[in-house]
Amino acid sequence: MTVHIGAPQTALAVTSPWANSSIILPPLGNLDAYISAVNRLPMLSLAEEQEYARKLKNNNDLEAAGKLVLSHLRLVVSVSRKYLGYGLPHGDLIQEGNIGLMKAVKRFDPDQGVRLVSYALHWIKAEIHEYILKNWRMVKVATTKAQRKLFFNLRSMKQGFKDGADAATHRNTLTEGQIDVMARELNVKREEVIEMEQRMSGGDVLLDPSPSDDGEDAFGPIAYLSDATHEPTALLESRQRDVLASDGITAALQELDPRARRIVEERWLKVNDDGSGGMTLHDLAAEYGVSAERIRQIEAAAMKKMKKVLATYA
């Protein structure tokens, strides 16, 4: 049993073992025909989705899996359109999204209380993100992790100004007011926004997601490729974060001795009325009569222990 979902650029087909062999979609080389065919595929009702998902989960029914995949191919087409601004072929993006959809169907649990469309969004976007990171290259305008984070946030916010009528915006530069808005929204200094804007205005630069020369972790646009504010997955992720922030943190703190617990609370959890945080390493070192390095070691050990507890809530 195969379903040909097409290969980008070429007429070769990618085969899934999960679909009815009688359904053959046009190759992604003929993108318009493929999208038209996908949009004609029938969608599943909640009852049908639950039925097929349980058949797959309980009996490894590949025919049922195929029906789930086919009915959600149009979702992949819709999601992939959000990433066309990175200069990669639409067919390639769809192909990678289809792989993510198959992974989602394989892992979907109908007893979780969510529709497959919500669950599959995460896997579809994850595959597309990984593909973009492997293939998208811009000039290295940001050399540190913090600068790269600012770069992608700034790039996203500039898109929001493009529809305005301000002449400076159409010159691809920022007005003083826009700089103030960005600095406030991104919680950075005006000077940092101006410097990054100057770098971005200088032309395209190579952005390699490999680790930087100073040993920092690789950083790419994966977390900033699209706005997930109103997506169903954002609600599920928010719910999980709420559990971690309440029950998870409480349980993790209970595993620490009083000194380690206070250090973690002061360093990570305390927020004063003026918005500032708790005590610094040197403040805590002075209170306990040890070196700041010793406080840092205690903090690191405590965080490692907390991560093990929090893993049970993930």
What does this structure look like?
- The protein has 314 residues and is mainly α.
- It has three domains: 3-135, Four Helix Bundle (Hemerythrin (Met), subunit A) (Up-down Bundle); 145-224, no CATH class; 232-311, Arc Repressor Mutant, subunit A.
- The chain contains 14 helices and two strands.
- It has a two-stranded antiparallel ribbon with strand order 1-2.
- It is flat.
- Mean pLDDT is 75; it is low at 1-22, 137-142, 165-171 and 203-208.
Helix and strand succession?
A: EEHHHHHHHHHHHHHH
CATH T-level fold name of the largest domain:
Four Helix Bundle (Hemerythrin (Met), subunit A)
How many helices does DSSP assign?
14
Q: Radius of gyration, Cα only, in angstroms? A: 24 Å
Whole-number average pLDDT? Answer: 75
Give the beta-strand count.
2
CATH architecture annotation name of the largest domain:
Up-down Bundle
Q: Please estimate the helix content.
A: 55-70%
Structural class, from secondary structure content? mainly alpha
Reported for the largest beta sheet, the result is: 2 strands, antiparallel
> What is the level 1 CATH name of the largest domain?
Mainly Alpha
pLDDT < 50 stretches: 1-22, 137-142, 165-171, 203-208
Strand order of the largest sheet: 1-2
How far apart the termini lie comes to 36 Å
What coarse outline follows from CA principal-axis ratios?
flat
Strand content: under 5%
